[in-house]
What we know:
Distance between the termini: 33 Å
Number of domains: 2
Mean pLDDT: 95
Structural class: alpha/beta
Low-confidence stretches: none
Order of helices and strands: EHEEHEHEHHEHEHEHEHEHEHEH
Strand order of the largest sheet: 8-7-6-9-10-11-12
CATH topology of the largest domain: Rossmann fold
Number of helices: 12
CATH class of the largest domain: Alpha Beta
Radius of gyration: 21 Å
Helix content: 25-40%
Amino acid sequence: MTVTFFSTQNYDRLYFDRHNSRKHVLRYVEVALDEQTVALAAGSDAVCVFVNDRVTAPVIRQLAASGIRLVALRCAGFNNVDLPAAAEAGIAVVRVPAYSPHAVAEYAVALILTLNRKTHKAYNRVREGNFSLDRLTGFDLFGKTVGVVGTGKIGAVFCDIMLGFGCRVLAYDVTENAALLAKGVQYLPLSELLGASDIVSLNCPLNPQTHHLINADSIRLMRRGVMLINTGRGGLIQTKAAIDALKTGQLGYLGLDVYEQEEHLFFRDFSETIIQDDQIARLMAFPNVLVTSHQAFFTEEALTEIAQVTFHNIADFEDGLPLANAVQVTPTP
Length: 333
């Protein structure tokens, strides 16, 4: 098959070339998929897309007109795909549901530890010959209450890690995890979890029900000075509400590996240009905010799994086999 990859980075080429055992024709383009770039997929049998590609209904119609019948997501989330439009066009959508839950969960912990113990600031100080400990005070994680929003594969691993730190772990999800309950995790309604937690970690998918789950109203329910961590999707947090809460001190710490408008910024180098996004500029001006560019998944194990599962999905489609990782799509009633 001929597969066009959108939003391609150097690491995509490295890992997909390495695991291309069927010798598919792989066409890499650096731009994101949208209505202006969809023509680049012409002549392909499938497209492979990432988190910030926009697989909208108009894009899907153009893909279908080009003879493309498969959209292979090289990520777990699929909020950027118009699923009813794909179903109507007869295009299958597959994903990589769990490339490395440990990678993302461990990264969430890294954000917590960095924000808390200020190791990034200490590193920069010492390199400049400043060995002062002023303003580097943190707190013990042991005994703190951690609220976990979303206990799927990533959230469950994150719960295990925080239990290992000696934290009290609360959880919110539409489905309770029996294994976590047996370990002492307590499920609560979201409002109660937010009010009881010292740290809140977002590990849920983005969908219409979770869009702006964290907003001005939900932030008011939180303890003053709470730490908020998001390694899920940027749209889970209403950015302006977070900025307002940082200014008043209601949010004491904010760790983001995802951002609401990240498709205009992340995975690209803007070091020599003026960033036009005023909200992210404001976020990065706070001393108690840590922003990274969607790298929680970025481990050797995860990249290998992404490539292997994506090729497995493509092979099953090519061979006419059931698609184990298909995203269930239904036409709009």
